[in-house]
Amino acid sequence: MYAGQRFEWFQQVNAKLSIVATPFYWVADIPSKISGWGESNIRSRETIIKDNERLSAETILLKAQVQKLASLEAENVRLRELLNSSAILDDSVLVAEIIGVSPDPLHHQIIVNKGEKDGLYVGQPVIDALGLMGQIIDVGAYQSRVLLITDPSHALPVQVNRNGLRSVAEGVGLYHQVILQHVAATTDIKIGDLLVSSGLGQRFPVGYPVATVTEVIIDPGQSFATVKASPSALLNRSRHVLLVFSHRREEIEDGRQSG
Amino acid sequence: MVVNQGSGHWVITITLLAAVMLSILPMPLWAQWGRPAIVAMVLIYWVIALPEHIGIGVAWTVGLLQDIVVGTPLGQNALALSVVAYLALILYQRLRMFTPVQQAVVVFVLIGLNQLLCHWIQTLTGTVSPNLLFLLPALISALLWPVLSVFLRLLRRNYYVN
């Protein structure tokens, strides 16, 4: 245990050993595989028709929203060029399936079915359709461990989407809550504010939604306000997650190598 | 005289592997704190039943496997299960005489110790439980013990494990 904490080579051995765990997770996942199969194969005609209608309506809506996006993106790039700041690059993503969750309620970790073979790396951001979920902490050959943003040991730099106010969102061990530490009592932050990742930690890309502020308690006796927020991502309900390959990270590393 | 090599040990292996698998099976959120320490229970049963074959070595190996699978610091469950197996080895002669209820009480203490050791090690690595709920699995395990021991005894009789 001591070695696991202190030596890097030991952690690498540990990551290699996780290949032993793969069959266990595969077997433990069978019940949910069966229910998933049942859900997609045993359905009434009505539900399929209803789903189809709903999905095509959703597609039209999303397409309409995307129409504007192209021109907005171009405009954004032009404005950033005017400001001489670096352009925001597109991130590529990889879809992975959740095959296990940590059995210990104190550890908010999930296991996904992608690993070293797919080019995952430690520190890689993980998102779902609605927001940021967490980051990779262990990469095995065929599976990886993800630390969720609600884990008590996790914190990430965020900013308020409305006014750019920076803060740090920390997990407290509850799936529906993160808290912002050390927010001055006079800060302009309101219930309903969207928190997005600020990218300051150099780990998460900029601009992914993280949480929505649900509670701001300003106690005159305390020097800091208590700000609670609920994560945007469906941390305990998603089945599929997206692994983000941030191009900026590669650039930084290239820069380090050449410089 | 022929030395008793034992037979049917694959049954022990399979039950232990199944226990490790059950220990990572996803549970609904409300039941998360009460997950029975199934690996420790199966181990205690086999130690009581076959103390000449199953001991601290097996406990250590299974614990290490559980550590790898669950992702806890390597050695946490190995240490806790070894202590549990050691105590069960000391107590097995008395435990065999006990009624299921008395056995369940001893199992409660052993699993409680297992949970406590695991929690201590976790505290060392930075995860502190906010309350004593981490001891709940001991109670659940003790309640499940009569069922599990009857089931494993059936397996043992059927496959002539000795």
UniProtKB/TrEMBL annotation, chain A:
- Please name the InterPro entries in this protein's record: Cell/Rod_1 (IPR042177), Cell/Rod_MreC_2 (IPR042175), MreC (IPR007221), MreC_beta-barrel_core (IPR055342)
Q: What's a single GO CC term here?
A: plasma membrane
Q: For the Rod shape-determining protein MreC beta-barrel core domain, which residue ranges apply?
A: 98-244
- Example of a GO biological process term: regulation of cell shape
Record key words, sorted: Cell shape
Name the Gene3D superfamilies on file. Answer: Rod shape-determining protein MreC, domain 1, Rod shape-determining protein MreC, domain 2
Q: NCBIfam families per the record?
A: mreC
Which family does the record assign?
Belongs to the MreC family.
Q: What is this protein called?
A: Cell shape-determining protein MreC
| Protein's organism | marine gamma proteobacterium HTCC2143
Automatic annotation (TrEMBL), chain B:
- What processes does the entry annotate via GO biological process terms? regulation of cell shape
Which GO CC annotations does the UniProt entry carry?
plasma membrane
Q: What does the UniProt entry say about where the protein is found?
A: Cell inner membrane; Cell membrane
Where primarily located?
Answer: membrane
At the top level of its lineage, which domain of life is listed? Bacteria
- Transmembrane stretches in the record are 6-25, 37-62, 74-92, 104-122, 134-155
What membrane topology was assigned to this protein in its record? Multi-pass membrane protein
- Keyword annotations of the record: Cell inner membrane, Cell membrane, Cell shape, Membrane, Transmembrane, Transmembrane helix
InterPro entries assigned: Cell_shape_determining_MreD, MreD_proteobac
Family to which the UniProt record says this protein belongs: Belongs to the MreD family.
Function, in words = Involved in formation of the rod shape of the cell. May also contribute to regulation of formation of penicillin-binding proteins.
| Name used for this protein in its record | Rod shape-determining protein MreD
Q: Which organism is it from?
A: marine gamma proteobacterium HTCC2143
UniProt lineage = Bacteria, Pseudomonadati, Pseudomonadota, Gammaproteobacteria, Cellvibrionales
